[in-house]
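User: Can you recover a sequence for this backbone? Please restate the input before giving your answer.

Assistant: Of course. Working from this structure:
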């Protein structure tokens, strides 16, 4: 049985909350939260996540069974531009587990390089 639009939205919202709360707790940064919706200039789903050099990271969350990695990477990069973030990544649901730390993170190699490169 396919999801309805309402059930998909509810699942997406719950997944965003799960990830935001986990990042907030594990990183001990109380400002991390779900991003307010901003329409055409979407900035991602989780706010106030930064790399070790305090550079913003745009995070797009996906709770779906069908992976669309090229589209997700493109969306994360667009949102990074909108958010004036250093890079954008996608966190997506790993079906079979609800543990937030066991979910998948997808990014390009260039995104990884941006995350681990020294600050300029």
């Amino acid at each position: 049985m396919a999801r309805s639009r309402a059930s998909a939205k509810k699942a997406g919202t719950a997944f965003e909350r799960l990830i935001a709360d986990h990042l907030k707790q594990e990183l001990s940064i109380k400002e991390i939260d779900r991003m307010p919706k901003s329409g055409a200039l979407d900035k991602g789903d989780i706010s106030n996540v930064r790399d070790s050099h305090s550079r913003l990271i745009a995070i797009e969350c996906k709770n779906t069974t069908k992976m669309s990695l090229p589209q997700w990477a493109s969306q994360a990069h667009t949102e990074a531009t909108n958010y004036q973030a250093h890079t954008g990544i996608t966190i997506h649901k790993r079906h079979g587990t609800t543990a937030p730390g066991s979910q998948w993170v997808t990014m390009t190699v260039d995104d990884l390089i941006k995350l681990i490169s020294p600050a300029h």
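That completes the design. The chain has one domain: 5-116.
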